């Protein structure tokens, strides 16, 4: 693959405006280390700059350096790409993506999953609790969330194994077997790069000091297991078997131009959920494809709660955030039929299967199905920045 | 403090039959490392044996060695205490507990909290859902559980800071402020010392290969925050501010003599929850004191679900267990009024305050209150083995 720096820095989704971070291992078998993606290449940052924290096999070491270093490093990469005198170094440290192994980008400390789309919450309620109000009384007062399993967050490409577990059967007796309702949930994740003091909430205005970057997240869900187990303590085995994330964490700085005000919040939330600026989301055009069929296209700007509100709520009780924490938005769904973020909503819990281009139908995922999430941020300057894909086959 | 080896190895709760592991830092400022408690002393195991994994500042390195090493190390410690020729080495490596700093014993990977006491589950339901069946339909089919926050598990002695958050107020509008219903939950924890393959459940008969040891756990709970947030995804900020664990992890081998058959399980659970031997619990006599007043004395043998069933359920879906995982039993409550494991049950959600010896009353915990959990295992040979205490002041 020829390395054409000018082309790579151009209007590619992963050009100079994006520069997401990840972990790669070159084909020569040398150890995994931190790289930045540039187009269809990855730049070996430890080779380019030599800082010790860049030789680590997870992004945690970079993240722990703090926001000042995040900003400086991004500046140094951009400078290297723009100035002719650095060109030799860039070329020498560029590896074609096809030639490297991409690894788990960071060690997940705690994983929290929110439920921040009103459209998703209401759609789910209409399916499971028809005739009752679609939102619980708490829903518009706080971003509802729960802790997921950090140890089963895997990078894109790791197959998702159909989970076994219990579900409800006729007569109220539990059935035990493989899930018959395996679903994806399209989510956006936020990676925390700073540890907060014990007992001290992260305020909503400190978001940029704490969040290192953004990724795509697939919250795999076994709907039958989840439905049976979920009362009264919430989802457990129906979610904890696997969560997939993209190989690439897009720096928050790359997404500044994608910030957009969210819709109105009524009632006005508690003081700790209000900041100096009105709640903002990100204009992220997302897409899910199953076996090559694009089946839904939500946009992340349609969420009710903002990422900064999620982080403030997660720590309002004094829970510390840690380097490596991942919090995800919950399923991203919009108002339209082609903007629903999971099969539960798309197929009405399997009752209205979709038809793929080869004529097959899907109520939920079948063994061998490949799901791919992609996304791009729409910047206010008219250009676009990519999010790393999430891809997994049901095994 | 004089070091009397014969006395220490005698019938002390932390004598030669117990030998729990922890992390200590000597007063000379040398680095924290792995020790074994013997009476009111701690033995410097790296000093006694020299193995590299004993110099680590968390038990994870020892746990990762596997069950064979766990067994050998315990045998070597016991041999050192029993044979006169090792006495000099033991004495040289013994530090009085008063002279050392005890640290966080292990790095928590994932933290899962169960709900495995039928008496607790039924008592809670009677308080919050009077007139409905006390157990959800799933309760006797699977050990209900959820993920807690690993990053806020702290060792005994770290003060618990009263959390702020939202609770329900009159008119259904959320109130924001400090919790007015801060509670403890007395639990028993199990520390996982082995990582399982991705996608492969840990069977119920593999329990002894995976569980390194046992500790006491306080699942601090803000009942007002919990009640408001909990639907539909379960507890979040009402629990995630703090979980306290003892400094000491008692090896599973020390508790073999405390195994007891559990009561009958009806209906018979799914096949993955049945093993070669009937479900067993541990005869652990537990106690909670507030400001020096012993207020409750549950026994862990009164649980419905067994520890092995909890681990099997946690991984039935292929979720891997990891070195450092902690799973806790949920509140341990018995059938009697003096066997209830949390203030919610003891004071009937604050409606029937308890009176302390100084005449003060408590509906829930007040600032400055000190809670202490203690426990001892009753072995079939008639002797007893201690569990490390959990102690924290509300700050």
From TrEMBL, chains A, B:
Catalytic residues in the record: 120
Cofactor(s) it depends on: Mg(2+); Ca(2+)
Molecular function in Gene Ontology: fumarylacetoacetase activity; metal ion binding
Residue sites binding substrate per the record: 115, 129, 226, 331
UniProt-annotated binding residues for Mg(2+): 219, 239, 243
Alphabetic keyword roster: Calcium, Hydrolase, Magnesium, Metal-binding, Phenylalanine catabolism, Tyrosine catabolism
EC category: hydrolase
SUPFAM superfamilies noted in UniProt: FAH, Fumarylacetoacetate hydrolase, FAH, N-terminal domain
Pfam families in the cross-refs: FAA_hydrolase, FAA_hydrolase_N
Entry binding sites for Ca(2+): 113, 185, 187, 219
BP-aspect Gene Ontology terms: homogentisate catabolic process; L-phenylalanine catabolic process; L-tyrosine catabolic process
The enzyme's E.C. designation: 3.7.1.2
Pathway: Amino-acid degradation; L-phenylalanine degradation; acetoacetate and fumarate from L-phenylalanine: step 6/6
Domain Fumarylacetoacetase N-terminal: 19-92
Record-given protein name: fumarylacetoacetase
Organism: Cupriavidus lacunae
Lineage: Bacteria, Pseudomonadati, Pseudomonadota, Betaproteobacteria, Burkholderiales
